[in-house]
Amino acid sequence: MRKSWITRLAIAGTAGLALVGMTAAPAMAGDKTYKTDRGYFKFIDDGDMFKICDTKKDGHGVKGYLYLKDGMTGKVRKVMTIDDGGDKGCDKKGFNIGNFHQYRMVFIWNGNGGEYQAVSPWFNE
After folding, report:
1. Which of 95, 86, 49 is nearest to 68 (CA)?
2. Residue 77: is it exposed, middle or buried by C-beta count within 10 angstroms (0-12/13-18/19+)?
3. Which of 37, 44, 54, 106 fits a disulfide with 65 by CB distance 3.0 to 4.6 angstroms?
4. How does pLDDT run across 74-111, given as a tens digit for each residue?
5. How far apart are CA 66 and CA 59, in angstroms?
6. Cα-flanking dihedrals φ and ψ of residue 6, to 5°?
7. Partner residues linked to 52 by β-bridges
8. For a pLDDT cut of 90, what percent of the chain falls above it?
9. Coil, strand or helix at 78
10. Model's pTM, two decimal places?
11. How many CA atoms lie within 13 A of 72 on its CB side?
12. CA-CA distance, 40 to 32, in Å (whole number)?
């Protein structure tokens, strides 16, 4: 009888540790793209690259901001700016995304003094 109780306890403990291990694993951000009728802002997970594209020929470019929300204090600050427009192709910029902080991408169209177009949800890697 005692051996059966110890076996059950060992199985339950192993299952509990496996569950903790699965929930403690970092969430992978994966590629994220935020599109508007004027362009898009994309996070490419492989290499932590950000790409911004102006897809509307209207004489105005687009700009992307990357915001960081500190994991300890909750304070938010802009950590990167990238823009595109006036040249052929899209622009790219790298920024190392970590597990400790949360990040948000903001897409801006540069016409009319800079109009907000799209904001991503907070994410991390």
Report:
1. 95
2. exposed
3. 106
4. 999 999 999 998 677 899 999 999 889 999 999 999 88
5. 24
6. -65, -40
7. 41, 91
8. 50
9. strand
10. 0.72
11. 0
12. 10
